[in-house]
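re: that chain from earlier
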Amino acid sequence: MMSAIEPDRFREAMRLTASGVAVVATEGPAGRAGLTVSTLCSLSMEPPSVVLCVHRDARALPGLLANGVFSANVLSQDQSRVADAFAGMVPELRDDKFGAGKWTALVTGSPVLEGAVCAFDCRLAEVFEFGSHRILVGQVLDLLAEPRSPLMFSGRGYRQLAAA
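^ sequence. v structure.
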């Protein structure tokens, strides 16, 4: 059954929601690549896994699929420039998005962002296709976590969490 909801109406409603911001990065035989995503969540505790959504036309997608490993770095509230760089919005960093931060690596060798709230080092476990996106499932092999405030995105802009 086709949806009667117009895409622009759906997009406007989704802009009212809030989400965390993450940079997904990979490194391996297919090279180094990364992108900013706002769709990252836990999937399962057994095995520990995350799920994220990537547009089928994203330039980083072929590298993610070919390398078969990635990190999902949840950005802290002071890392909006990193988010912008990986979204292609910082002209001087378009050829070197990774210049926006300092990077290390864990088990898979994927780039892990220093100062992130948390970073999940993953093996690509499953890929599903739905509509305009690819849904990637990553089995978490290692992680880092720091007690920091996350960067949020809502209403077409970055936000910070405040205590209720």
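The first helix runs from residue 7 to 14.
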